[in-house]
Amino acid sequence: xxxxxVKTSDTIRGEKYFKLFDVSGKLIKAEQMLVNPYLVKLxxxxxxxxxxxxxxxxxxxxxxxxxxxx
Length: 70
Hints:
By secondary structure, the protein is mainly β. The protein has strands at 3-6, 16-22, 27-33, 38-41, 49-57, 60-68.
């Protein structure tokens, strides 16, 4: 649980940025996505729970959820 892949649509071009937040809104990780799919290495193990991710590209922002179960 300390790394995962993020894959975006092939139609998204240019610089992409990835952010991961816990459910309270605390930023856990932020980095530029250099390749697609992109391997996010957290450096810490995520606990069971809900996380929100954000992918930004040219001012367009997309959000999603990651749910971790035991």
